[in-house]
Every structure is written in structure tokens, then in C-alpha cells.
Amino acid sequence: MKFSQQLSIKEVLLIILVILSIHFTEFKIGVVKLSEIILLFLPPFLYSRKINKWCLYFYFLFSLWLGVSLFFNIYREFPPLKGLSILKKPYLITIGRFFELIACINLVALIIFYFKNKSHEKLIQFVERIVFISFILIIINSLIYVLVINGIISNSDLVYITFSNDYRLKGGFVEGGPYGLMLSFVFVLSFWYKSRLNIIIRLFIIFNIIFFAKSKAGMLLLVIWGVIYYYKTVYRKIKSLSFIVLLIGGVIAIFAFAKLANVYIEHIQNMEKYVSERPNDTSLIMGRIAGSHIAPKMVLENPIFGIGLGNYPLQRNLKKYRSFIPESPPGKTDAHGLGGIFQLMVDGGIFILFSFILILIYLIKKTMVLRNGMEIFLFVFPCFFLTGVQIYFLYPWFLLGIIISLNEKADSKRRFSS
């Protein structure tokens, strides 16, 4: 990567915005992320001429989701909760989540708009810069983690101690799991990074996910990406192996997956016992483990249109859903942590989930026709939401913006050559 190239003011500002969107998801003014505020003010500049059709599809879907949610909110029960910000009250939380989704689409549109008249190579160079800056930030976070666990500095908001007195690096996220997923995202981006440093970057990221963030979701995403990226090579290798080797490999893979999932399974099976022993442990009564108990009940009761956009933090406190799980602590809101795809099902029901999937299928088909290699990155896009990333987190949408932008360049080149 040529760092000697002079960057324009616009590109520097875009780099800052993207880094904010990827690494500083908790950098907020009140309860609103700074990156989202910036992105919500961009539409007059982004859409002065033409709206990209893929952005338009998502705009229409999320607007429909908002309308359906507000309509059915009239008939929903919302428990009285104390200490919540006004933006997290019924109806307002729905509108707030809608604007977060709009910010995500605006990020996609911004990438498409900025690189519309720029070369393929210019966009790849931009991604390389994002990877390099991310690598520097990961190094800084790692150094702080080492200083904390060795007692050189007493405390840091980047590191937290679990209920079992285990240190985990959270890197500015709410905890180690989401941070590990963000690291896996940078790992995926590094496959555009053409430098001798890429092997070092990837190994360092893997080390951070496993030993510092201790993120099971991040590890799982790395495995998924490996399967997607290397499936052709792996398939050819597998064909040449004997049945015994395949059997042994399959057993090892199953054992590794079972070991990875064992912590969650054990907690879910003994949920009531643990809650009675640790009723004030927020990592237990809030988040993924509690969500695995609460969210399925919501889906069964509201299968078609869901519980409404953004309503999970409020609805989860209803006795019929949480049963023996305590209410959220005063002033705090919960997220089930099961990822954006499950969030589409919980908050939007079958209707919104299937609509979202149809848009992705259409985009995948279009991408495969272009034969520009972007399909592997498009396949991993929903995997972030499957492994725990919320649908309104910005950084997976940055990846989608890159994919669509490169698709349009490939499509334009194909039409020109024909």
C-alpha cells in the first residue's frame, strides 16, 4: 500500500467516519452514536441525483418495518420501567432503531457515492488504509490489556473482569464477544490488503480473538470465513483423502464445535439455578444467555410481524416472557445478543426476515453473474448477523457498500466491453 499518496480532505473525513463506525460503536452523545448522527445528516448530499437501487430496497423494507411496528404498538403491552432515557421509551425506541437502520443504509450509499467515479484500485486502496489503521488500534488495545492484567495500570474501560474473575479485552465495545466479532470483520477486510504485513495482521487478530477478547462468536466467524474463502481448495483436497481421514476429521470438527458451544448449553440448561444463585449478575440475567430463554417465546407468540422494531429491551421485562429471569436493572436496557438475523425474526417476524433474505438472494444472484469474486464477501455479510452482530451495527454495512460499489464497477465494465 502506498501511504505516500496525498489524501484529499474528503477521503480523510471518510476514513475517520468509517473508523468511528467500526471501532467506536460506544462513542456517543447521550445515547446516540456520533457516527450515526453524522450519517443521518448526509442524505441531501448522497441523494441529490439518484438513489442506488439496493439502498432503495433496504429503505423501503425498513420503512415498512417501522410502519408495521408503530401500528401494532397500539395493541402491545409495555411494562413500566424506571430510569430509562426518553429515547428508550415505547414508540420512541422504535423510531430510534429505524434511524439507526437508516444510518446503516446511508453508510452503504456513501461508499457507493464517493467511489462511483473512482477506479477499482482506488477503492481497494481505501480498504487497505482502513485495515492498517484498524491494526494500529488493535495493537494499542492489546498493549492496554497487557498493562492491566500485569497490574501496571489499575483499570481501563477497554478491559473488564467477568463474574469468574477472568480478564477480557472489550476494546470499547460492551464486552469481549462483540469486540471479537469486530476483530473478525477486520480479519475479513484484510483479504483485500496487499502487503507483506497481511500475514502478521491476520495472526495478531486471531491471537486477540482467542486469548484477549476470548470471543467464541469471533472464533466461530473465523471458521465460517475460512470455509467460505477456501471451500474450493478444501473441496479438492477432501476428494483426494481416504474415508478414514474424513471420518477422523469430521469427529474432531464435531468435538471442537461441541466444546465451543458447551458453555452456552450448560448455562441454558441450568438457567434457573444460576439465576437464583446470581440474581445481580448482569452478564447472566441480560444478554445472550437470558435472550436464548426469552426471545423464542416472543417468536412463538408473534411469528408473523414480530414484537415490533426495537421493542425487545422493553418487552423482555414482561412476566410472560422472562418468567424466573429478573427485570433489567433500573436505567438499563437489554439486547438478546443472538444477532441481527434473529433480531429480524424477533422484532419483525417472518414477514421482515423473509423480505430481507429475498433482497440478499437477489443481490447474490446479481453478483455471481458478474463473476468478480465478490460473492464470497457477500456470503459472509449475513454471517456477522448470524453470529451475534446486531442488525443496526454499522460495520457490516460498510462491507456491503464495498461489495455493491465493486459490483457496479464490474457491471459497468461488462456493459462497456460488450
UniProtKB/TrEMBL annotation:
Coiled coil: none annotated. It comes from Croceitalea marina. Its main location: membrane. It is found in: Membrane. Keywords: Ligase, Membrane, Transmembrane, Transmembrane helix. The chain crosses the membrane at residues 54-75, 95-115, 127-153, 173-193, 205-231, 243-265, 341-364, 376-406. The lineage of its organism: Bacteria, Pseudomonadati, Bacteroidota, Flavobacteriia, Flavobacteriales. GO terms for molecular function: ligase activity. This is O-antigen ligase family protein. Residues 203-357 form the O-antigen ligase-related domain. It is a multi-pass membrane protein.
